[in-house]
Design brief:
Length: about 350
């Protein structure tokens, strides 16, 4: 939790009495542990180069049988090594999925595993890659530990062997996609203190805010905006988050759900901007958009009317709040709860 403005996680993972590794872990641990002195497997041996006379019709093809046998043996060894790595990866994945204790996950993560690559090196899961697993399986304690103990490494770009959301901030995008609101809050809070954290709204990228609008996650929209995500960012197609939200509303028609509408209302609190194409669509089809959005909202978005008084007041208030203190600063506002955005995320520091 948070005390004095900083996240406080476990100082170090500790093994508790009675806790043990999964039964199948011991079958594989000896294969990958540093203590076993696992030697590097050389690259597959190829047969010696055939004689330069091999291409001549009057010269028989000559090749030594011994290198071929060695190549076969080494190829089998490489295949076994790949199988061992896949088995270990599955064990770690399952351990995070089953919400095993932090000490156990850290022991497994830091265990050097053989990767069949050109450099044939021993590697281990990085904090960034482990954080992706924690997000997918909503392992909040492990995510908090990684962000507290390894703030720079946890938010770094994951390795190439991990395929995740194509975004300027993959961990934020993954938390939005899986709707992990608590972990999303931890990542946003820690990103304010990590100078090298990737920007969440890099120009031309599909930002986590775009994704939250597409998936109709109003709580994530509010958390991202409150922590400084730009409502003006455009993706590769030139769409702003407001454009994405309006497209979802248009596609759903008169049956627009409460979540879609709440995404729009949360965006309006931070003065979003219409893209060129969406602005033209609103001007071209008033008979569609005015009933769908309401006259006040439609007039405001098209520039025909000023924003409603309450909306303007909330825009001014929210502009004064520090992103690093969100959402606690919004909870502390001395205004009636009915004026605060519905679905306001809870305090990261507790009740």
């Amino acid at each position: 939790m948070r005390a004095g403005g900083t996240l406080q996680g476990p100082a170090a993972p500790e093994r508790r009495s009675g806790e043990r590794f999964p039964d199948d872990f011991h079958l594989h641990a000896g294969l990958f542990s540093r203590s076993t002195g696992l030697s590097r497997v050389p690259p597959p041996l190829l047969p010696d180069r055939l004689s330069s006379d091999a291409g001549r019709s009057d010269t028989p093809l000559r090749a030594s049988k011994e290198p071929l046998a060695m190549a076969s043996v080494t190829g089998c060894s490489a295949a076994r090594s790949a199988d061992k790595h896949r088995s270990f990866s599955l064990l770690f994945y399952r351990a995070v999925r089953d919400l095993k204790p932090v000490w156990m996950l850290e022991d497994m993560r830091t265990m050097e595993v053989f990767y069949r690559e050109e450099d044939a090196t021993l590697k281990m899961y990085s904090p960034s890659e482990a954080l992706l697993y924690a997000i997918v399986h909503d392992h909040q304690a492990y995510a908090q530990f990684l962000l507290t103990r390894y703030p720079d490494e946890a938010l770094a770009k994951p390795g190439e062997r991990f395929c995740c959301c194509p975004s300027s901030a993959p961990h934020l995008a993954m938390a939005v996609r899986y709707d992990r609101r608590y972990i999303l809050g931890l990542i946003l809070q820690e990103s304010h203190r990590v100078p090298g954290a990737p920007p969440a709204d890099r120009a031309g990228w599909r930002t986590p805010l775009h994704l939250a609008c597409e998936l109709c996650r109003p709580e994530s929209v509010l958390m991202l905006l409150g922590n400084g995500a730009s409502p003006l960012a455009e993706d590769l197609g030139g769409l702003t988050p407001l454009d994405v939200t309006l497209e979802k509303l248009r596609d759903s028609g008169s049956a627009a759900g409460a979540e879609r509408r709440q995404c729009l209302d949360n965006l309006l609190l931070y003065r979003p901007r219409l893209g060129r194409h969406m602005r033209a669509a609103l001007d071209r089809e008033p008979e569609l958009w005015s009933p769908l959005l309401g006259e006040d909202t439609y007039g405001y978005l098209t520039g025909k009317n000023p924003p409603p008084l309450l909306l303007r007041a909330m825009q001014t208030i929210l502009q004064q709040l520090r992103p690093s203190g969100f959402p606690d600063s919004l909870h502390d506002l001395p205004i009636p709860p009915s004026l605060k955005p519905p679905g306001l995320p809870g305090r990261l520091g507790g009740p």
